[in-house]
Amino acid sequence: MKYYIGVDGGGSNLRVALVDETMHLLREVVRGKANPNTLGIQQASDRIQQALREITEGFHEPIRAVGIGISGAPKAIAEKWLRDTVKAVLPFAEVVPSSDEEIALVGANGERRGVLVLSGTGSIAHGANDAGESLTIGGWGYLMGDKGSGYWLGMQALEAYIRHEDGTDTRPTSLVERVRQQCGFKDRFDIIPWLYQPAPDSSKVARLAPLVLEEAQAGDAHARHIVEEGAAELALLAQTIVRRLHITQPRYAFAGSLLTHPTPLAEALCRRLRLPAPPQPRYTPLIGAALLARLTVDPV
């Protein structure tokens, strides 16, 4: 029996799994964020290495390979750091550097083929064709992109609130009162310290996304318009990958908290991609990281 480790550093938590060659989960460790762009390289390395030590403590079988995908550290720009971080703890294991979107695709489809659309705090799309060519688009972060993401939906809710307060948008919408209640705004200027102090926080804004989805589900016209616009942006990412990789029969996969559950956003995206229902993943991104390691090192 061979054993593999998957490391998923996407989203809000670092997850590490130890599996056998059938992808049966033997152990799992969950820690906080591991994005080196927000934590710093050294702290991110320390967190990943601590989790690797913990998951292998007392496990006496050799680890064949480790697949790792960390948000903010894709293979294209961080391969050496990913390898060095793992090798410091597991010097004899093969290391398969990846990205959080690639391991999500491999997990969802059970293979390194298809088109993944991810919407959580941020948004991104990743695809791979039969020739082994791959492409990632989006994922530029909340300051430059992430349309259709939880952050983007939250910002649309905040914009609806301030436009109502300014009187520049008089359309009736329940979003204004929902934002006021959830954020605890008592005065029209309370939004400024809420948003900017101590510093802008994309996760904090993204936590407003569920109220947009809830109000859209309840029939609020403005919330539904926001959701449809977000779905259009996500569909554009997917369709662009299909076009650029010349994929004739795309196998779509959804990932991220806003698409992996029945939500108005997932339903709207399905309509735009002509899917009867949100595709169900075969494995989680965490197991996808371990599966990618196995497919790369032991492809037969």
UniProtKB/TrEMBL annotation:
Native organism is Fischerella thermalis CCMEE 5330
What name does the UniProt record give this protein? ATPase BadF/BadG/BcrA/BcrD type domain-containing protein
Q: What is the lineage of its organism?
A: Bacteria, Bacillati, Cyanobacteriota, Cyanophyceae, Nostocales
The ATPase BadF/BadG/BcrA/BcrD type domain covers: 5-293
| Pfam families in the cross-refs | BcrAD_BadFG
Gene3D superfamilies recorded: 3.30.420.40
Q: PANTHER family from the xrefs?
A: N-ACETYL-D-GLUCOSAMINE KINASE
